[in-house]
Amino acid sequence: MSAILKIDNLKAAYGGIHALRGVSLQVEEGEIVSVLGANGAGKSTLLKCISAVMKRTDGTIEFMGKPIPSKPHEIVEAGLVQVPEARQIFAKLTVMENLRVGVGNRKDVEGIKRDYERVFTMFPRLKEREKQYGGLLSGGEQQMLAIARGIMANPKLMMFDEPSLGLAPVIVTQMFEIIKEINDEGCSILLVEQNANKALQISDHAYIMQTGEVVRYGTGAELLADDTLSAAYLGN
Fold first, then answer.
1. Can you name the residues that pair with 5 across neighbouring β-strands?
2. pLDDT in tens, 30-51
3. What is the Cα–Cα distance from 65 to 203, expressed in whole angstroms?
4. Which end of the chain is more exposed for a tag (fewer CB within 10 A), N or C?
């Protein structure tokens, strides 16, 4: 197994505030890796730097053994897709139009057709609502659409930023099942999540962040069994 994503000594700042203080982590091909921590730990900043939405001040990021592209659209085309926090679907576009946005510059017509079938099989609710505007969907349906839009880019690695945020418990369980299913189909996963228990249950490895630094690392099972973890690092 080799690293599909490798980050070394990543640093980033908002003005004079150091949001990332030398973060190093990696995701092996086929893995689910979680990044956990309380609010303000730097988790979302980490994803923004990987996606080139935010500039890093130091450190290196490699994707599939090469320096990651410098522009967001190039990163997506290389096979790394982020499902953002708070869904960020296009409210005034229909479900189908949102999915077409996800297709981007793909030219593999047969592959695109298969992926439409795939996401509608995975999310039958979206098939029922394919002509409905994104803004009229429920929170859970919008999260389904955000994930489906990401799948339409045919990623090799998907990054999820707080996919369970604001969702009912039954939908949260469904979201984690879907993330596991996507991984089982061959896509590596980097998951930022506040629901540590759910995240660790499906994770091969996990990193715990606190004030911009990695303070713990282990397998999902090891960290799930650590009773001191929640009180010490996760703000629970």
1. 27, 63
2. 999 999 998 889 999 999 999 9
3. 23
4. N
φ/ψ of 36, rounded to 5, equals -120, 160
pLDDT band, very low/low/confident/very high, at 173 (cuts 50, 70, 90): very high
| Residues 68-89 pLDDT 10s | 999 999 999 999 999 988 778 9
Instruction: Report the relative pairing of strands 80-83 and 58-63 from DSSP bridges.
Output: unpaired
Q: Helices (DSSP H) in the chain: which residue ranges?
A: 43-50, 72-78, 95-103, 109-122, 124-128, 139-151, 169-184, 196-202, 220-224, 229-233
Amino acid residing at 7 = I
Q: Which residues contact 124 (CB under 8 A, 6 or more apart)?
A: none
Please check whether residue 33 is in contact with residue 206, taking contact to mean a CB–CB distance below 8 angstroms: yes
How far is the C-alpha of 191 from the C-alpha of 204, rounded, in Å? 11
- Element at 27 (helix H, strand E): strand 17-28
Q: What is the pTM of this model?
A: 0.93
Q: What angle do CA 14, 17, 21 make, to 5 degrees?
A: 100
- The b-or-e profile of 128-167 (16+ CB within 10 A means b, else e) is ebeeebbeebeebbbbbbbbbbbbbbbbbbbbbbbbbeeb
